[in-house]
């Protein structure tokens, strides 16, 4: 098939939506499909390029974009340029299917053009407007609330054009339906290549907690640093924080003010090899974010056989089963987070081994191969076995609307 994937954020950006689109495109290309991507240009590198991701060559159409100055990396395409480029790319490549990853800019350009050409459309929602608007701090909260409502209405208008709507987990799909009034949203895991990670069962010499993700306010990484400061000094807890973002210096300052700078290591952006090595060195993975629509980083940790301690919010309870492969804590409860981390770090060999194996069992339901199977079927309009959010419930058969 000729497949056009539309992204408001794409590699080299590091976030869940960009990572999913990259892996999806590369996985489809490896199966012999002709994959094109339309995405923001980086540093005004505008044009069509052959770009290699995960060993696969994709045709990437880079559209002129502006950087949102308050944010360290976020770029956005201009709506009128997106519409013109949508027509240009679609009419040049004649895709069999258009798969947009966001309604905000790329979907608003691609969906109407694809609809008018009679092309099959799949729309995947990775965003919550409330999170995006946290970067617009120049506006008062009442205006941000109003803008969130406007964005949800825009999402409903754009996604209504899609033949199929998907979201990474059942909880995110249900939330999307609640906020847009749309129905029959299919929950399909973002998926990861579990074979790229090596489960480690040897007890590590350090009590090391790992976080991987953006360093933005919405991720609440400060809670992890505050929890580390409250844990028993005898544990000598080391915290490895992987990722970049607007609050990186703020987190360093917080660690210094709490007297834990020597135990909090902000590693910044790292290579895939360094990421896997960091996970292997870890004892437990922590995710304090309250707005994860799935959390690829947690799944990568689980594929390395790490127990996970996470906020009891959004999709995280679908990955973390309390007392089995880790613990959930109530968002904002620093003492609860510290206690949960302490429980894992002080667990005996048998208990820790049991948690590690439980993580592997949960993540096994999220293989990238199955995710690719599902999307290929959706692209063709075939019935699919969707990967639902909670693996305990098992997969459910969903018929894609015609």
From TrEMBL:
The keyword Glycosyltransferase applies. Gene3D superfamilies: Glycogen Phosphorylase B (3.40.50.2000). This is D-inositol 3-phosphate glycosyltransferase. Keywords: Glycosyltransferase, Transferase. Residues 204-358 form the Glycosyl transferase family domain. It comes from Lysinimonas soli. GO terms for molecular function: glycosyltransferase activity. Pfam families: Glyco_transf_4 (PF13439), Glycos_transf_1 (PF00534). InterPro entries: Glyco_trans_1 (IPR001296), Glyco_trans_4-like_N (IPR028098), Glycosyltransferase_grp1 (IPR050194). Residues 14-195 form the Glycosyltransferase subfamily 4-like N-terminal domain.
């Amino acid at each position: 098939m000729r497949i056009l994937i539309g992204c408001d954020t794409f590699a080299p950006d590091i976030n869940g939506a960009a990572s999913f689109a990259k892996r999806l495109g590369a996985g489809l290309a490896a199966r012999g499909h002709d994959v094109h991507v339309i995405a923001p240009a980086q540093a005004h590198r505008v044009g069509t390029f052959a770009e290699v991701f995960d060993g696969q060559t994709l045709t990437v159409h880079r559209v002129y974009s502006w950087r949102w100055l308050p944010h360290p990396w976020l770029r956005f395409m201009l709506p009128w340029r997106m519409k013109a480029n949508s027509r240009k790319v679609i009419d040049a490549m004649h895709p069999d299917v258009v798969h947009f990853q966001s309604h905000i800019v790329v979907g608003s350009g691609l969906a109407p053009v694809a609809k008018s050409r009679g092309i099959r459309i799949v729309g995947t929602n990775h965003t919550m407007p409330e999170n995006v608007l946290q970067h617009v701090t120049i506006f008062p909260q009442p205006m941000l609330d109003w803008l969130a409502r406007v964005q949800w209405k825009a999402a409903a208008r754009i996604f209504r054009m899609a033949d199929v709507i998907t979201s990474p987990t059942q909880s995110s799909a249900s939330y999307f339906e609640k906020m847009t009034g749309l129905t029959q949203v299919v929950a399909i895991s973002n998926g990861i290549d579990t074979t790229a990670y090596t489960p480690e069962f040897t007890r590590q010499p350090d009590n090391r907690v790992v976080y991987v993700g953006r360093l933005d306010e919405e991720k609440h990484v400060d809670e992890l640093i505050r929890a580390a400061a409250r844990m028993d000094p005898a544990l000598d807890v080391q915290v490895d924080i992987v990722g970049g973002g607007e609050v990186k210096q703020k987190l360093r300052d917080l660690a210094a003010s709490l007297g834990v700078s020597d135990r909090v290591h902000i590693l910044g952006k790292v290579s895939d090899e360094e990421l896997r090595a960091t996970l292997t060195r870890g004892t437990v993975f922590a995710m304090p974010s309250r707005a994860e629509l799935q959390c690829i980083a947690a799944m990568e940790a689980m594929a390395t056989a790490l127990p996970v301690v996470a906020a009891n919010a959004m999709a995280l309870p679908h990955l973390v089963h309390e007392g089995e492969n880790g613990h959930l804590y109530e968002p904002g409860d620093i003492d609860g987070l510290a206690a949960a981390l302490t429980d894992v770090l002080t667990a005996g060999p048998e208990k820790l081994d049991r948690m590690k194996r439980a993580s592997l069992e949960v993540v096994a339901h999220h293989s990238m191969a199955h995710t690719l199977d599902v999307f290929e079927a959706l692209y063709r309009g075939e019935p699919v076995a969707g990967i639902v959010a909670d693996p305990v419930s098992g997969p459910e058969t969903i018929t894609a609307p015609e």
